[in-house]
Amino acid sequence: MEQRLDYRTASPEALEAMLRVQMQVNRSGLEESLLELVKSRASQMNGCAWCLDMHTKDARAMGETEQRLYLLPVWREAPCYSERERAALAWTEALTDLASMHDVPDAVYEQARRHFDAKALVDLTLAVITINGWNRLNVAFRTKVGDYVSPHAGKH
């Protein structure tokens, strides 16, 4: 597919606003590995090839295994995720699919609260909101896929 436009140059102000929110997520204290799983899962659900390319490359460069990345769409059946990761992935799916669910189920909230204190859950929610925003920008404008090189490459 051909890229429709480059949102980064079309509206540097919009890009700067998204980057500020992303910086807050990055400073949240949530584990980078957890955030990459969340970003990858939301990107899978949203069909965002650009973000999925980026976040799987970043995850691999930070030491994530290929098996865990391959099994991410079926994380409920895969034994390789921690209970905390499972809670984050369930939360991610509920928020990403909010339009069809119309609610975040109590069971998903309670599972998340068992593994995340109030601040961490708000930070995780902001991470999901942010990746969904990036997904929508990249899907809408068909950002060219495949050229991303992780800044973490070679560090692990």
Label this structure with key terms.
single chain; 156 residues; mainly alpha; AhpD-like; 9 helices; 66% helix; globular
| Anisotropy-based shape | globular
Low-confidence stretches: none
CATH class: Mainly Alpha
Distance between the termini: 33 Å
The class by helix and strand makeup works out as mainly alpha
Q: Mind telling me which CATH architecture this is? A: Up-down Bundle
Helix share bin: 55-70%
- Beta-strand residue fraction: under 5%
Biggest sheet character: none
Any idea what the radius of gyration is? 15 Å
Number of domains: 1
CATH-derived topology: AhpD-like
- Calculate the mean pLDDT score and round it: 95
CATH superfamily: AhpD-like
Task: Describe it.
With 156 residues, the protein is mostly helical. It has a single domain (12-140), classed as AhpD-like (Up-down Bundle), CATH 1.20.1290.10. It has helices at residues 7-10, 12-26, 32-46, 49-61, 66-70, 83-96, 98-101, 106-115, 118-140. The longest helix is centred in the C-terminal third of the chain and has 23 residues, at 118-140. It is globular and about 40 Å long. The protein starts with 6 loop residues before the first helix and ends in a 16-residue tail after the last helix. The mean pLDDT is 95.
